[in-house]
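Reply to dn_fold:

You asked what the input looked like. This is it:
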Amino acid sequence: MLESQRLSWDGTGRIVSIEPEATASPRPLLLPGLADVHNHGGAGHSFPTSDLEGCRAAALHHRAYGTTTLLTSTVSAPAEVLLPRLELLAQLAQEGLSAGIHAEGPFIAAVRCGAQDPSAIVDGDPGLFREMIAAAGGHLRAVTFAPETAHARELVDLCAANDVVVSLGHTDADAQATTAIIDYAVAAGARVSATHLCNAMPPLHHRAPGPVAALLRAAMAGRATVELVADGVHLDDELVAFVADAAGPDAVSFVSDAMGAAGQADGAYMLGALEVVVAQGVARLRTADGSPGAIAGGTSRVIDQVRRQVRAGWDLGAAVRAATSGHRLLGLRDRGELRVGARADVVATDSNLYPLRTWVGGVDCTPSDLQAGDPERRGS
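and this is what came back:
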């Protein structure tokens, strides 16, 4: 992050100089573009269900708010729905609007389905996974599956062979089973992450530490990255701080887990085939009796989580590292930091970390409403 410095890039979209700039007036704070490796949509549109134009709008919404590297996330769905969806989302990657696709399911544990459709969950199926990889046309970058699913090691082998991150989650596995799959994945040369750590998995218990302990230990050893939805809804801020202190911010990846309601008003939405109600910014599955359903994705953006955690006491540099570590998880070494030679993915914010402008590869991607002042913060 830079303050009171001038950053320049050339026609190739690479940073060529960073120089001090003397100024008496307040200057925007410059941050590296943020990464979100788990995102189901925004601006009223859903990556699992919207048409191509709607998916473009969702991707551009998050880009305008500083997420310059995005994985578009699916949900568990029957093959006849999932495979065409992967083909559609591959078009976003081909257009440069995403860094690829994250398939959340369908090889997960039904007892930990969360906001996934239980009828669409299936046992690990290497044949179906090969079809998913093919449908994504080389753009499948991560897949969430449960360590205890059938053929888990074959799924890992396919991930290692196709540069797909092994993201473990929606699981009821114990610590030993989780550690065994982590060990196998690391030995196979696959990158490993935890899908929204603590959510959709058994809670940490002193006699049954479960997948949380196994994944956290792996992160502390530099063998895994743990996703944290650091929005104050999915995780308490104290838990976020604890995980970051234990594993270090470079092993933590802030993710939005956003659904269509991100950037929108409260109301009724869909997440895949499931109905969702958003009230006071919290998305939950609709239930027949009106009682609170399972949390159904997020409504924040990654920059919102950076701002929240800084207000909670985080050092800004650490928060930015947690919001850019997704680049390293994906092997994108040319972005996620402001240095000469890096791609000019840059976010300018005010002193309160509200975004003002976003550049991707040196190209200004800021919509007119943000250039005129973010309506969410007018009068604040």
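Residues 54 and 296 are 20 Å apart (CA to CA).
Hope that clears it up.
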